[in-house]
Amino acid sequence: MTVATDEFGLIRDYFSDIGSDRSGSVRLSVGDDCAVIAPPPDREMVVSIDTMVEGVHFEAGTSGDRVASRLLGAALSDLAAMAAIPAFFTLALTLPDTDQIWLRAFSTRLAELARHHGVQLVGGDTTRGPLTLSIQVHGWTVPGKALLRSGARPGDRIFVTGTLGDSRGGLETLLKNIHGEQVPFLQHRFFCPEPRLDTALLIAPFATAAIDVSDGLLADLNHILTASQVGAMLNPDELPISHELYHWVGEEQSRQWALTGGEDFELCFTVPALLEPKLAWALRDHSVGVTCIGQISATPGIVLAEDGQIWPVAPQGYNHFSDKGTM
Ligand code: ADP
Ligand code: MG
Q1: In the predicted model, is pLDDT for residue 26 greater than 60?
Q2: Rounded distance, CA 304 to CA 110, Å?
Q3: Do residues 121 and 110 make contact, with C-beta atoms less than 8 angstroms apart?
Q4: Residues with Cβ within 5 Å of ion ligand 2?
Q5: Ligand 1, closest atom to CA 121?
Q6: What is the predicted pLDDT for the residue at 327?
Q7: 124 lines ligand 1 (CB under 6 A)
Q8: Which of 75, 98, 124, 316 sits at 20 to 30 Å (Cα–Cα) from 255?
Q9: Residue 210's closest CA among 279, 147, 293, 301?
Q10: What CA–CA distance (Å, rounded) separates 195 from 73?
Q11: Among 7, 13, 16, 30, which residue has the most ligand 1 atoms within 8 Å of its CB, making it the best to mutate?
Q12: What separation in Å is there between the alpha carbon of 53 and the centre of ligand 2?
């Protein structure tokens, strides 16, 4: 194994051959001043960047493979929320030192996931400083077909993919150093978010609005509501909760985390009631569960409907610039 001795050796050893662009648009990758991309005919480019800072998004000492899967998973989840097909990404890396074991674990996992999702690393920047990582992802959509937050209409059904609250549960097991039967599943959900890229393409023909759940369901749904100038009624009984989370913390806590816990990276989306049967048909053989949890209303705000009663809830979630952030 070669061992990087400087910035250029490090880029060559760890970041020069990561993933491949399934859309075939990369003309020139890592190594020159810029990458060169030939956009496929009649496509729009969709772009998003995500940053992770040691001590803020992950604990000091977190292994390179875990950081890689959270970083790329979170970045690709934004492309899923727009129903875009991922193509390529860049990586800005600030490292305190060249820890070969950490770097090898990071780049190996990054390469596995990049291959799996059909994205290619085409360039980046490498600097010395406190461990900070940014990934900018680029994807393609048919012009005018990116799934926005702003299209929800009263009467639309609200859906979520997968299960909610697991990642918040996983974080709790880490913070409190808890061991047990459910812990590996919950920590996997925390460290290895699965961007719902395939699901997004299946739901896109029917969806009026979508977002990925990064700050918590209430907070992220509220972004759809604000952008669409509508409100929502949610049925907490319908929230999809994993057996693992339910068995570990019970109904009340798992519901609370399903509503407000962040970083599940599931999709929340809206579909007109009339298109529900078509959505169900499109998803008939799909492996990811999709659950209806409520309905869009004309009245602003979110209300929970339970036991024949309704009450309003505040759209809490994690906010980096709010004193109330608890994660
Ligand atoms: P420049 O000084 O011209 O900006 P750099 O010396 O920073 O170029 O980078 C050299 C090449 O390596 C460029 O193609 C750049 O995109 C790539 N690169 C630098 N850091 C990374 C990284 N962390 N991951 C992938 N490619 C990188
Ligand atoms: Mg240059």
Answers
A1: yes
A2: 40
A3: yes
A4: 33
A5: 25
A6: 35
A7: yes
A8: 75
A9: 147
A10: 6
A11: 30
A12: 26
The tokens describing 90, both together, are 């860049």
Q: Which amino acid is at 188?
A: H
Cα-to-centroid distance, 258 and ligand 2 (Å): 46
Which residue in this structure is represented by tokens 């059909």? Answer: 118
- Alpha carbon distance 116, 111 (integer Å): 8
Evaluate: CB of 88 within 6 angstroms of ligand 1. no
Span 113-150, pLDDT tens digits: 999 999 999 999 999 999 999 999 999 999 999 999 99
Q: Where are the beta strands (DSSP E) in the chain?
A: 26-28, 36-37, 44-53, 85-95, 120-128, 132-141, 157-161, 209-212, 231-234, 267-271, 290-297, 301-306, 309-313
What are the distances in angstroms from CA 169 to CA 41, 153, 181, 187, 275?
Answer: 44, 33, 13, 8, 34
Tell whether the model's pLDDT for residue 165 goes beyond 70. yes
**Tokens at 322, concatenated:** 């709010």
- From the list 308, 310, 327, 311, the residue with the least C-alpha distance to 319 is 327
- Angle, CA 263 vertex, CA 175 and CA 286 arms, to 5°: 130
- DSSP state at residue 233: E
Two structure tokens written together for 254: 């798992």
Instruction: Give 5's pLDDT tier (boundaries 50, 70, 90).
Output: low
